[in-house]
Design goal:
The protein is α/β, with parallel strands linked by helices and 331 residues long. The chain folds into two domains: 12-134 and 296-309, 3-Layer(aba) Sandwich (Rossmann fold); 135-291, 3-Layer(aba) Sandwich (Rossmann fold), CATH 3.40.50.1370. 36% of the residues lie in helices and 14% in strands. The chain has helices at residues 12-28, 54-65, 86-96, 110-116, 135-150, 174-185, 214-219, 243-250, 254-259, 280-283, 290-309; strands spanning 43-48, 69-74, 100-105, 123-129, 163-167, 189-193, 208-211, 224-227, 265-267. Helix 1 crosses helix 11 (290-309) and helix 2 packs across helix 11. The N and C termini lie close together (5 Å). The relative contact order is 0.17. Carbamoyl phosphate binds at residues 54-55, 104, 134, 137, 270-271. It is an enzyme of class 2 (transferase). Pfam families: OTCace, OTCace_N.
Length: 331
């Protein structure tokens, strides 16, 4: 695997391989000593042009648990704030010998530009670009759904027949886009629920059903209900009358939580706006996978970095790499 830029072009078998390697990584994280020497001598740069806490920390933890050296680069207070271009920044990282660059950027397509420009030879992982995609978030969501559904018998399984309903600010959500492509590639049935103003203008090419009533969507019996954060910072117009009105019509409250099927789970990519798109009762209920998603995120990002940087070369022994990892590269 050379880069991880999106889920729309990620082959089903490659997605399953990442999920299966993440299972192996999760097993190592239950040991007393969690660190693996697999990426010793490699340098991973977290290049964040947008603010982030959980994603940056998750990638940092993943790289360090694989024994990589980690450099955290924030655009604020750096030469970027003085006008340095992405090209100049990339060439600086190249000169420093970066082996992988994890990039979050406000411009859709920036990670692909970095990966295909020739400015840098490092592998590139998209940690979120504009309103385009956030592939590792979708992978950790799929991992979480699969784990809840199949438990320890998850390896090699897809999500055929699983019903996933994604609710909220789809218009601005790169998480929703990545989940649509990945979950459907794995066989899931995806439904979007949002106010008409928060549905992208043209979703006719998306393999989804679109509904506008959350109660109708819950009555259809989803296996997973994924609540999206309302991204007020990306909104420059009135997309709904008031926050109270949004919460009443599209928020997951106690009544809607009770209406979910007994085996349905509640998901949220975080950070949560409690009381807006999700109530505290729903966020903290046994159905909620919010904290599991955070935990699983480290394992999935360990798997992505492992396949990006070690794939064909790393020895597959118990002490240096996760069990069951194939020795060929994926494309």
């Amino acid at each position: 695997m050379r880069h991880l830029l999106d889920t729309q072009t990620l082959a089903r078998e490659d997605a399953l391989r990442i999920l299966d390697v993440a299972e192996d990584m999760a097993d190592t994280q239950r040991r007393e000593i969690k660190k693996l020497p697999t990426l010793r001598g490699k340098t991973v740069v977290n290049l964040f042009f947008e603010d982030s806490t959980r994603t940056r920390i998750s990638f940092e933890a993943a790289a360090k648990r694989l024994s990589a050296d980690v450099i955290n680069f924030s655009a604020k207070g750096s030469s970027v704030s003085k006008g340095e271009s992405l090209q100049d920044t990339a060439q600086t990282l190249q000169a420093m010998g970066a082996d992988a660059v994890v990039i979050r950027h406000g411009a859709s397509g920036a990670p692909r530009t970095l990966a295909t420009s020739g400015w840098i030879s490092a592998g590139v992982v998209n940690a979120g670009d504009g309103t385009h995609e956030h592939p590792t978030q979708a992978l950790l969501d799929a991992f979480t759904i699969r784990k809840r559904r199949f438990g320890d018998d998850s390896r090699g399984r897809d999500l055929a027949g699983v019903k996933v309903t994604i609710v909220g600010d789809v218009l601005h959500s790169r998480v929703a886009r990545s989940n649509v492509w990945l979950l459907t590639a794995l066989g899931a049935e995806v439904t979007l629920v949002a106010p008409p103003t928060l549905v992208p203008q043209d979703v006719t090419g998306w393999p989804v059903e679109v509904l506008y009533d959350l109660d109708d969507a819950i009555a259809a019996g989803p296996d997973a209900l994924m609540m999206l954060r309302i991204q007020l910072e990306r909104m420059n117009a009135a997309y709904f009358p008031t926050e109270r009105e949004y919460s009443r019509r599209w928020g997951l409250d106690a009544r809607r939580l009770d209406a979910l099927g007994v085996d349905s789970i509640v998901m949220h990519p975080g950070p949560m706006n409690r009381g807006l798109e999700i109530s505290a009762e729903a966020a903290d209920s046994p159905r909620s996978t919010v904290l599991e998603q955070v935990t699983n995120g480290v394992s999935v990002r360990m798997a992505a970095l492992y396949l990006l940087l070690a794939g064909a070369d790393a020895p597959t022994t118990e002490t240096t790499a996760p069990a069951g990892t194939a020795k060929e590269n994926t494309r």
